[in-house]
Amino acid sequence: MAPDPRSAPAPEGAFVPVRAVHEALLAGEPLLLLDVRWRLGDADGRAHHRAGHLPGAVYVDLDAELSAPPS
After folding, report:
1. Cα 4 to the chain's mean position, in Å?
2. 58, containing H or E segment
3. Distances in whole angstroms, Cα of residue 53 to Cα of each of 36, 37, 46, 50
4. H-type alpha helices, the chain
5. Kind of pairing, strands 58-59 and 34-35?
6. From CA 37, how far away is CA 2, in angstroms rounded?
7. pLDDT the model gives residue 51
8. What is the pLDDT of residues 2-46, one digit of tens each?
9. Is there a contact between 45 and 36 (Cβ–Cβ < 8 Å)?
10. pTM for the whole thing?
11. Rounded to an integer, what distance in angstroms lies between the CA atom of residue 70 and that of residue 2?
């Protein structure tokens, strides 16, 4: 059974400079881009993602997918 990638630590280099992302996109390299938009007082990150995002970026809802339920 493969390990659950959600519980694995981010690999070294998971966060890279914008220039490196731009060059990789231009080169056609396979990338996994996660768009986690969140702003205090503006919880509609999905609408902002639909309005414009990096090519291939997948929207990830901070409250629904990356946070534990309130306790």
Report:
1. 17
2. strand 58-59
3. 11, 10, 10, 7
4. 18-27, 45-51, 62-65
5. parallel
6. 29
7. 93
8. 555 555 555 666 677 889 888 988 999 888 888 888 888 887 889
9. yes
10. 0.60
11. 30
